[in-house]
Amino acid sequence: MNVTSFAAMRGSAQEIVDAMTADPYGLTSPSVYETARMVASASWLAGHQQRVEFLLAEQHEDGTWGGPAAYGLLPTLSAVDALLSVAGPYDTRRVARAVESGMAALARRSRRNVQLPDTIAVELLVPWLVEQINQRLTRMDGRDGMPGRLSLQADTGTLSRIRELLRTHSGIPEKTWHSLEALGTPAVRSPAVIPTSGSVGASPAATTAWLGDPPHAYAATSCLDYLHRTQARHGGPVSGITSITYFEQAWVVTALCGSGLDVEIPAQVPDSLRSALRTNGLPAGPGLPADSDDTAAALHALALLGKPESVDCLWEYDTGSHFVCFPNERTPSTSTNAHILVALADRHGQGDPRCDLAVERVGGWLTEQQHPAGHWTDKWHASPYYATACGAAAVSRLDGPQASAALDNAVRWVLSTQRADGSWGQWAGTGEETAYALQILNHRAVPDRPAIDAILGGRAFLSHHIGTDSDDPPLWHDKDLYTPVRVIRAEILATLAATRHLTEAQN
């Protein structure tokens, strides 16, 4: 079967939409970090042995876990701490070897000054896990084969301040609930934290931290039900973010609408997005705080579906120069501002000067963030191809020489970074990043010969990619890297469909 035939692509895209509509949570890949937290703190939960086996199987040859380079630090800390806690019917030699190899990798990391990636709550989780590991090693002191203390340096200032806020019942920012496990004893049944449908911050680790270990007899039934459902989705291992309902809906709709695949979007999808909108927008999914990124993407998706909603909920995120994702965030997001520009540009010509002025202002800010080589980088994704695809989609909505030059620079960067097999990728060629690169090239009204050749090479790679069982590696930022599975599948199919005319023109 030709998996890239139009009928096959349309059928696959409809399957994604149907599966998304039937799933109240969204589909994300299992997380090494989060699964390790459950091994360490929830051995009583079904699937414990499978979680231990998952950790042992996921360790890399160099002793690390997780993503490349600095992205491996937090998952490795979490896995080492979890395996230090393991007791029971396991191959203790295998566990000991994994711990020894992981500690050696962390020791090598401590000798290098590598900047941490801007993943969620990294400033809380790294010092907490260093503290956890050293406490375990102190308790194990004297046992044969136990490694020495971890000398990794980590700033504990932010962690201490938030712990104190929770201890004194002063309240903590809602976005911190997602990483509640780092806050210790004050987190247990804290009245400042309110579960949503049984989950705390859409995180199994945070939910377990709120319940306490082991869970008391009076533990909330809904929280236990949530944990059992969550571990069952991957057969023991758990995802780091377990609810991406609105994120998945908005991104899948945006990817597929306009691709030419003409899929049927059930009324349930726009109804879900509209019902989730509040005066401050909507979150990625239930149990998470509202943010401007998911809000802007949902507003654009609703506009594409012919069900536009007011953009007034975006204004409280406006700083005057750009928009923030959350109040008091550490670093601004280029992809978020790109999504906001697109959502506001949907209202162009409707007599709202505030929207028109904000589009120009955010467009100027975005072009200033573009790197000299022509790409953008972002806080929500490890790959510059995602950020650059977002930036290119936004500036392509603008008029003027500055926007045109920004798009040309992005195209030149993409052309200069294509791999020999036709793919693109930060560390290796992937289907996801190749789709983003093709989207950037396809923004030109009339691609030139180099762009056409690059698109054809990328399409050939994608055609092979979707015809195999290969999975795209985690590239999205949560506590560690993850994959929003249906979003990526939709992006790849939509990109193949949207560039199909170029292939037909060559035949």
Describe the model.
- The chain contains 20 helices and 2 strands.
- The longest helix is centred in the first third of the chain and has 19 residues.
- Helix 2 packs across helix 3, helix 4 packs antiparallel against helix 5 and helix 13 packs antiparallel against helix 14.
- It is mostly helical and 507 residues long.
- It has a two-stranded antiparallel sheet.
What ranges have pLDDT less than 50 throughout 5 or more consecutive residues? Answer: none
Ends: how far apart?
20 Å
Oligomer: single chain
Tell me what portion of residues adopts beta-strand conformation: under 5%
Strand element count? 2
Query: Approximately how much helix is present in the residues?
Result: 40-55%
* Largest sheet data: 2 strands, antiparallel
The outline comes out as globular
SS-based class: mainly alpha
Strand order of the largest sheet: 1-2
N-to-C order of helices and strands: HHHHHHHHHHHHHHHHHHEEHH
Q: Rg from C-alpha positions?
A: 23 Å
Provide the residue-averaged pLDDT: 92
Helical stretch count?
Answer: 20
